[in-house]
């Protein structure tokens, strides 16, 4: 199952820098782990904003949920989820 | 340059079917042409709605504009454009 | 896979009554067919508005999409889709 | 009477973990109690977000209100309430 | 059960005057009938706009729905429904 | 003059309980005083949310303003004010 | 009583010019009549848009309503009404 | 140049009262100064809400900006600015 | 005076092509005339949408209004106007 | 590539003045640096609000992103990005 997830981050301006750097490092590690597992095939930065557009390829909606809840930066995110499916005009069979 | 384009279609319920089928056929042909040219690398259907999420890979914002204006179904679309760039956590070099 | 689909209908006030009654009859027949097949386990009327809240239980997001596109009244609908999953506090195993 | 209640949670990122775990445990216990009493027949997780969609089956709007005010996590919730009724296309008599 | 219903009307500027006057007369008659039956205890005009705020006192959400669908001007309305209950600070027992 | 006032309350989750109970007690006393004076003829709880819908019957817009500013819980409220007038379909002369 | 009324006009692009010019002439005449009567003390054009911001000084909300319904261009308007009162910082006694 | 400025205030409920009273006193003094200078010809309270609607008559957009930034309560305001001009239906030459 | 004007166009899909081409030609001529007069120093296309972002440099808000009303495509536009002024960080004296 | 970026600032009212003045000074220095490099050709103040409208001229969306993340006041900003391109009616070749 494919989902588009749009994540917008709003981080308190006066957060402790050490704490935040640690959260970001753990977020990056978790993201790499999920990308390598094929669960997170696309992640793009939204130009000019602390936000990303991601595509997830998961077994179930429940798996997507567990993934999102496992992200260290989730508490700062506003999240929008859109379920996707194959488009009839898509020329790729395996997208 | 990468852009995400979200297209939502609102077609008049009583449109002439022949006219609309012709428009859809031309839209599909144009989409295939752009996909084959590598300009439209991803197109996903939004599940349950007459809408799609697309990724365009173009030389310039002007090229994106010309592409969108060339789509036969553009007059029925509400369009949202988001400029994307490489995410620092992306493990792919050539995404 | 479970999806909540909220459908709001906006029908032109001066639509031909025979045409609309026929569309409603076909919508009802299609809804019954999908309910009997177990694809549409819940449908509730939103009190006071020409709208419903529905739960669909389908094999894939693509199947949901095909179902929605097959509804005769789809052209009058504004549709919102929400992917659902099991809640950790749910006491039912088979909901 | 049936109500759909959509609950979105926004929890401060730096809340004391012990306090929050205690609130969640009490929320779960209260939810189980209401589910067993038949007041809360459905609860679904919204995939990817700390949110749920619930159906309540209560004697009155006042009872719904008392239930919502009794939820330990209510102070973190944004709540949307929709009154539901039987849909004429529903094939179940006792939904 | 008490419901607040907010009705905003948007009537095509070029509607046939005879048709619309007939619809308004039937709307008024239906409103009077429901007021006399005690179902529609309050109706206020929103100052300066073709809109009203109403309170309905009905047996069930289903009865509210049937009432709203029976209003001749419903096709021109945007409707918002809010379920109400007794307020703990209300000094009237029988409001 | 009649006004509908919709009050939505958002109270910090970690407010000092004694302080808040005192504020609520003063709010209730002030509400009772205004109800007994005939200024606040209707107050309904919005089912499931910490919110109310109220009707005020005042001498002037200025009096409404002074009333609202005198409410102890005003600092937690999001307020929407709608000026009302008699509806031509209302069968009550003295509503 | 003072009200601010914001009127935004949306006129069909293909309206019959003679019909529309007649409506505008009647709107202007009605506006002049109300201005001379002191009911409509201020009217400003919103720069760059077919819209105005107006202040009405009327006996009651009902009078405001009758005035708005009497405007020939009302069917093309989106209207927002805000009840005003004297500001404590206003240095004018008779504003 | 005329501008309508709508100012909505949201003040933290637990602000130090002495600090806030001082800010309000300075705001009032600054408002009086600008009114006497003819820069702020109208200020109305929005009935029932801590908000105002104001008309400014300034030499330039830059002057409006400097005025707004000089208001002691600006940090609590949500501000909406609308550029106004003379309305062709206005019967006053010097409004 | 500087104004940013955002113009979004929504043209009926079935408009007579000759009529529309004539409107567009007159719009372009009017735009060129205003650009050459220095009134419309910047116009940019919004990539992917039938919309533009423009900067106008005019004597007054009234002049901006007359310009906008003179645009042949105005009836299809949704317009947002923002008054601008010199930014203190701008290094150009004559921008 | 041209981008319009709209930046709205919301600064906590009780921020330490020394800290904030330092942030503003660094923001101004960074802005000057980018203006001198030709990356930030236009910056306008939004009249009456702590906000600006800017035009950036960059090599890529990634460069825009790096610029925005380098702004010392970014943590207080709500940012909207719009990709622009040359307008066919623009009479300037090198805008």
Keywords:
elongated; 95 residues; Alpha-Beta Plaits; alpha+beta; 32% strand; homodecamer; 2 helices
Give an account of the 3D structure.
Ten copies of one chain form a homodecamer. By secondary structure, the first copy, chain A, is α+β, with helices and mostly antiparallel strands. Chain A has one domain: Alpha-Beta Plaits. Chain A is elongated, with a radius of gyration of 15 Å. Chain A has a four-stranded antiparallel sheet, with no helix packed on it. Helix content of chain A is 31%, strand content 32%. Chains H and I meet through helix 2 and strand 4 of H and helix 2 and strand 4 of I.
Number of contiguous helices of chain A: 2
Q: What is the molecular shape of chain A? A: elongated
User: What fraction of the residues of chain A are assigned to beta strands by DSSP?
Assistant: 25-35%
Query: Element order, helices and strands of chain A?
Result: EHEEHE
**Assembly annotation:** homodecamer
CATH fold name of chain A, please?
A: Alpha-Beta Plaits
CATH class of chain A: Alpha Beta
Number of strands of chain A: 4
Q: What fraction, in percent, of the residue positions of chain A are helical?
A: 25-40%
Average pLDDT of chain A, rounded to a whole number, is 96
Low-confidence stretches of chain A: none
Which two chains have the most extensive interface, and how many residues on each? Answer: A-B, 29 and 29 residues
Q: Return the domain count of chain A.
A: 1
What is the radius of gyration of chain A?
15 Å
Name given to the CATH architecture of chain A: 2-Layer Sandwich
Tell me the name of the CATH homologous superfamily of chain A. Dimeric alpha+beta barrel
Query: What is the end-to-end distance of chain A?
Result: 11 Å
């Amino acid at each position: 199952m494919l989902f588009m997830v749009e994540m917008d981050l709003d981080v308190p301006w006066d957060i402790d820098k050490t704490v935040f750097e640690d959260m970001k490092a753990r977020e990056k590690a978790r993201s790499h782990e999920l990308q390598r597992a094929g669960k997170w095939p696309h992640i793009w930065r939204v130009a000019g904003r602390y936000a990303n557009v991601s595509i997830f390829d998961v077994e179930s909606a429940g798996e997507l949920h567990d993934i999102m809840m496992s992200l260290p930066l989730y508490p700062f995110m506003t999240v929008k989820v859109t379920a996707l499916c194959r488009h009839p005009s898509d020329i790729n069979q395996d997208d």
